[in-house]
Design goal:
Blueprint (H helix, E strand, L loop, with lengths): L4 H13 L4 H18 L3 H5 L2 H5 L4 E10 L5 E12 L5 E7 L5 H17 L5 E7 L8 H15 L8 E5 L5 H15 L20 H21 L7 E5 L3 H12 L3 E6 L3 E4 L6 H10 L5 H6 L4 E4 L11 E4 L8 H9 L4 E3 L8 H9 L3 E3 L1 H4 L2 H15 L5 H25 L6 H19 L4
Parallel strand pairs: 3-4, 3-5, 6-7, 6-10, 10-11, 11-12
Antiparallel strand pairs: 1-2, 2-4, 7-8, 8-9
Length: 449
């Protein structure tokens, strides 16, 4: 409940001006809940209309994306880029290709990205983009034609000092490659830093593929150590999703001594009491691009269950929701509590509903929001931009070490802010406040823009 008059007034305006955008409104209200503890100390923010400007994107771009499928039929999708806030650096945030993509989802992701990028300590503003195009089931030629058409409009609005997109759900190395090739052809320049997540032969960074999943675990290690005097060693872990983030989160959990017993995709989940065989999973998802149900067909002793949300019924010590927004509802959170789970660390963007967050925190589980614990991906994108600007490549070990250091600093910033706000260990509060204060200071310094 928003008690502060200024925030309540701004929230009411946001609700009136952005109807039918539940994900965006959910993200704004969650952040406002935390900011109540600091707004009263800064009356200058209200005089400068700071919060009003903070919740309004600087620019929204929407465009049609026509392309021709393999049967010669013209298809039309919708493309988006929300350039939300550039106070601390050029807009930075991924592109998502998924049928669920709409303006509300892109705005919520862009809004979250402002705070996430701020927490990395790197000079990056917040933005997000994508399309309702579904790359699943499409041929490489169809994906290429779509990406080229998408970039034929997007190129006008991006640049390494303006807006630097990366990948997200549905956008991996293949899609980034096609888009970068088209961008380079249109502008007749090799602006390596304009897109991140590139292939290693043309400016990509080692460890970028692993960065988000690894970063979740680096953050979690710090939280477990400092707040629970514990670790992954011997813990049973559930990781939802089976995309890039989930795969490498599971890999790092295993390296840290945990046992991942369940993973999912949009159709259902697999349970393997012996621990997920990551070699088999990687082959199914990275090479064959098949459904996770194939795992149960090939690994004796494992089970496949329809319905991805039911994964939270699997007994575990630590949960890593790494699939998509609002994937864990109140029932899922209560199942974790009932089964004795001790911690939930988000790997996706806003994967817990507000009701789920309330249940998790009320029952004393250690909880971290995605804007903090999944910031490793964008942090390493920032490191890729640095390498591109310096015309050099760091080793995997160098990038991984820098990523590890950034995630430790993010935890420290979140914890320190939670202490300053009188709620030590409330990492959601800490992430929102620590991320916002840096952006607010930059916005105030730059005037009414």
């Amino acid at each position: 409940m928003i008690q502060n008059d200024y925030l309540a007034r701004v929230l009411a305006d946001v609700q009136k001006n952005h109807p039918g955008e539940p994900e965006f409104l959910q993200a704004v209200e969650e952040v406002f809940e935390s900011l109540q503890l600091v707004v009263d100390k800064h009356p200058e923010w209200e005089a400068a209309g700071l919060i009003e400007r903070f919740v309004e994107p600087e620019r929204i771009i929407m465009f049609r994306v026509p392309w021709v499928d393999d049967n010669g039929k013209v298809q039309v999708n919708r493309g988006y880029r929300v350039q939300f806030n550039s106070a601390i650096g050029p807009y930075k945030g991924g592109l998502r290709f998924h049928p669920s993509v709409n303006l509300s989802i892109i705005k919520f992701l862009g809004f979250e990205q402002i705070l996430k990028n701020s927490l990395t300590t790197l000079p990056m503003g917040g933005g997000k983009g994508g399309s309702d195009f579904d790359p699943k089931g499409k041929s490489d030629a169809e994906v290429m034609r779509f990406c080229q058409s998408f970039m034929n409009e997007l190129y006008r609005h991006i640049g390494q000092f303006t807006d630097t997109p990366a990948g997200d759900i549905g956008v991996g190395a293949r899609e980034i490659g096609y888009m970068f090739g088209e961008y380079k052809k249109i502008v007749d320049r090799f602006d390596g830093g304009v897109l991140t997540g590139k292939g290693l032969t043309y400016g990509g960074s080692l460890a970028r593929t692993q960065a988000t999943g690894y970063g979740v675990c680096y953050y979690s290690v710090e939280a477990l150590k400092h707040l629970k005097n514990d670790s992954y060693e011997g813990k049973t872990v559930v990781v939802s999703g089976s995309g890039n983030v989930a795969q490498y989160c599971a890999q790092k959990v295993t390296q840290f001594g945990g046992k991942v017993v369940a993973m999912s995709d949009s159709q259902g989940y697999v349970y393997d009491p012996n621990g997920i065989n990551l070699d088999v999973l990687f082959d199914i998802k990275q090479k064959r691009r098949a459904r996770i149900s194939v795992y149960a067909q090939e690994v004796p002793g494992s089970e496949y269950h329809e319905g991805c949300k039911n994964i939270w019924n699997v007994k575990c010590d630590i949960a890593h929701p790494c699939a998509s927004q609002n994937e864990m509802d109140a029932a899922g959170a209560q199942a974790l509590v009932d089964n004795g789970c001790m911690a939930v660390f988000e790997g996706a963007n806003m994967p817990l509903t507000p009701e789920a967050i309330e249940i998790v925190m009320k029952n004393g589980l250690l909880y971290s929001p995605g804007k903090a614990s999944n910031a490793g991906g964008v942090a390493t994108s920032g490191l890729e931009m640095t390498q591109n600007s310096m015309r050099l490549s760091w080793s995997f070990e160098e990038v991984d070490e820098r990523l590890h250091g950034i995630m430790k600093e993010i935890f420290k910033a979140c914890y320190d802010a939670s202490v300053e706000c009188g709620q030590p260990g409330n990492l959601m509060l800490g992430a929102n406040v620590a991320g916002f204060l840096k952006v607010a200071e930059a916005m105030m310094a730059q005037g009414i823009v």
